[in-house]
User: What shape does this take?
Amino acid sequence: MVVAVSPPAKVLVTGANGYLAVWVVKKYLEAGYAVRGTVRSLAKSAFLKDRFAHYGDRFELVVVEDITKDGAFDEAVKGVDAIAHTASPFHYKATDPDELIIPAVRGTTSILNSTLKHGNAVKRLVLTSSVAAVREEVTTPRVFNETTWNNSAMEAVKTKGSTVGPVTIYLASKTLAEKAAWDFVATHKSEISWDLVVINPPYVFGPSLSPAPTVDDINTSQREVYDTLSGARTSTQLRNQGNWVHVAVAAEAHVRATHVAAAGGERIIVTSGPFFYQDLLDAAAELGIPNVPRGEPGLTKDIPIIINLETNKAKELLGLTSETPLKDLVEESVKDFKERGYPGFIV
Ligand code: NDP
Assistant: This one.
């Protein structure tokens, strides 16, 4: 069964107050969909009501206090045509794997079960997974694509438990959650009337649409940008390589994954390209941005890209072709940090 869900259909977006989710909500509304967002706290999410007030009753919020509870989403899924499940903890502070793995996995199985039982109108479920579920740690160049899995993070958590470290705990949480979703779909194949699309973004960077009054309120990924541009990186860290995607592109991928019929049943990596942390400082230098440290220009010129991501599916299925220049990201991030009066960027 391959069904596209087009506007003015209603989409349920879980964790609607999150960094990426606010952009996802914005993109759905701009595309003409109606959105029901779930949040843990209405008080904390009041800014959403203000931000999207001009959409009137096309935007609503409901509270789901504990996403790990059986039946947590039973009411929320009623009457929606599609679901984007983004809610999942993303931080590098966990000391116990359960802290991240339980909400990531049970949150996913909980919404899948609620959709199975009560999502009579649902035709598509888009899951925000991550490149965390696709790539493993490498020391020599390797290409990862939608057929590869981060088995080593799951294995490390299984064998080493709490000693494994917070980053690996996060990587395992995303891998286990995505696996749980595909397993669920395989198990309930004959009972479900919707299909699953998984979006796998690497680090999502770009200005937040959330209040984030202090630096400590910045979400985990954009904090990487802040820390780099404010000079908190060692030489070793500046040599590290990652992959990133602009938050607007990652959000748009969710919308296209909803209305592109052929995306059903696919994992899709969505990336703007690889980067070294030094590249962010080089971009700031090129833009002539004052007060941003220059790092060590030329530091990475002989280092190969070791984590390579294939981008064909995003191009072919979702039509996401343009790679965002890192310079644009740095320019808009610095502007955003200045407007918020963050330390190091006060005008
Ligand atoms: P945020 O921390 O900004 O948002 C996370 C959202 O999930 C919030 O709505 C949060 O609610 C909710 N959440 C977190 N923990 C729980 C929990 N235990 N129970 C219920 N809800 C919870 O993260 P991002 O926007 O950065 O990430 C959103 C999604 O995108 C996640 O699934 C993440 O893994 C994925 N992703 C993010 C990337 C990135 O670089 N940002 C890259 C790839 C994937 P509350 O505010 O109430 O805590």
Notes: The pocket of NDP is lined by residues 15, 17-21, 40, 67, 86-90, 103, 128, 130, 174, 201, 203-204, 219-221 (CB under 6 Å). The chain has one domain: 10-340. The domain at 10-340 is CATH 3.40.50.720 (Rossmann fold).
